[in-house]
Input
Amino acid sequence: MTHKVLIVEDEQRIRELISDYFDSKEWIVCQAENGREGLYMYENEIPDLVILDLMMPEMDGWEVCRQIRRQSDVPIIILTAVSGDERQIQGYELGADDYVTKPFSPKVLVSKAEVLMKRVNGQLFSNPHIVLGFDVLLNTRSRQLEKGEETFDLTPKEYDILQMLLRNKGIVLSRETILGHVWGMDYEGDIRVVDTHIKKLRGKMCQAANNIRTVFGIGYIYEEAP
Output
């Protein structure tokens, strides 16, 4: 599954340098040049990771981090020219996951990001069985849905879609966002392929299919049915 990173940095040279390194590792890269734009792009792009500079126009990184944390646990790496333990502690208290001081190695930054994503994924799926409700389980090792003695095989795309929805519970994901994450930004086929795979996925989820709700004109949201 392709990961998406949002880089919020007001210095174009640094922003593009970081972008090139992530792009070389086949991440989907989004860029923002100030805090307000970064918050807007976060809400619309639903990235898997945020690289966030602190000293920016429009809205500083502290406020962006604070507002993101009000709605999401997405991993955040703070990027700043300001060093010192107090600054780092403040960043961690706001909910940042890591802290990188300028000047830095873009290669090391990407490595930190990849390690962080592995840790986050491991926390989310540390138990091989995820309860979806109505006695339906997702087995993350076999990539099957289980209900009692029955098992339902998931295709790679179906599994990636379900995994993405589970990571973003309560967040509406547009068809474009799902398509970019699961099929990649270079995919040139019909966007309705998302709807087709969601329909097949729901067919295998039994009663738990109601957890995937269609948001008319936008996309889908995963909410556990009462």
Summary: The chain has a mean pLDDT of 83.
